[in-house]
Design a protein that fits this description.
Layout: H1 2-16, H2 35-60, H3 70-78, H4 82-110, H5 114-117, H6 121-134, H7 139-153, H8 159-173, H9 192-208, H10 216-226, H11 231-256, H12 262-267, H13 274-305, H14 310-348, H15 357-367
Amino acid sequence: MIEFILTGVIIGLFIGLIPGLHINSILPFLFLTNNENITALIISSSIAFVFSSSFSTILFGVPSTDFLLILPTHKLVKKGEAVKAIIISLNSMLLSVIFSIPFIFLLFLIKHFYSLFEKIIPVILIITLFSFVFKNKKSIIIVTLSGLLGFLTFHFNLLFPLLTGFFAVPNLLFSFDSKVNIQFFHKIKFSKKLIKTSFLASFLSSFFSIIPTISSSIVSTVAEKLGKLDDEEFISFISSTNLSYMVFSFYALSLLNIARSGSSVFLKTLEGNSFFYLGIILISAGFSFFICKKILFSIVKFYQKINPKLLPILGIFILIFISFLLNDFIGLLVLFTSSAIGLLAFMLKVPRVSCMSSLIIPTVFVLL
């Protein structure tokens, strides 16, 4: 079993280091062995992916997990503090794994009255939609366009090109176009600041992870509005939320039969239990953290030697190829359409979290 966890970690780390590529792209290719080993591969590769994707997100502004992470890290990168941002992200994710454990038991409690909670989910989603346009009236354009596209594609397996176009492609097109000045002397400890934000992220994620279409991006936006976070706290919060969401997606599946991530969708057809998941999560998180810390400076130096325009171009071609591979020409049509909406949001200076309306609006119609 341990060899499959290590294999999954290596796969996840490698995928996360490629700008714009997501772990969901390779999950179908992992179904090559028995159920128990596939489960170990999927969970470990998913956890490792979240850890390593912080490298390309921070250094190139190309998100594989959460585009919001770009905002505060851009400032640190421009000051030569990219390594500092990466270490904050890695430390926070490790803390979030630890803090997520007690909140898993919260899901055990929710399991008993989830049927009652389901009745107010549409109300929560509608409030979320209104929050998108409350402070930025131009958001109504993006909410409408993305919601219409989401409604048209909701009953088809087009999630990859849909979300890739909204978030990954625009950032690949507008990623950093100059060499990054990087300092290598930062040592970031597990400070009280990181502990506090990671704990808060784990708590909020345990609750919001059971609500359909509410992503880690939305949770991060809510937290930022509730309290002023400095750049380091914001990086810590978003990183912790990304990892916590991945952890809780496995338990939302096993306890509530809710698939909240691409990884959990694939696990839905496999056998597994909560304690089995927890063991794989802890082992893969430990390995991922250790390896990322060991390869940190080597990866940063490698990225520095690459033409900064090469990786985004390569990333776009990879995403186009995968979209075609998964969904044929209809996948390309959805990819180009959602990319246009994502670029429009970028030009209108509308938070692209509004594009999540593509999932929220059709979900509300289904639940009502």
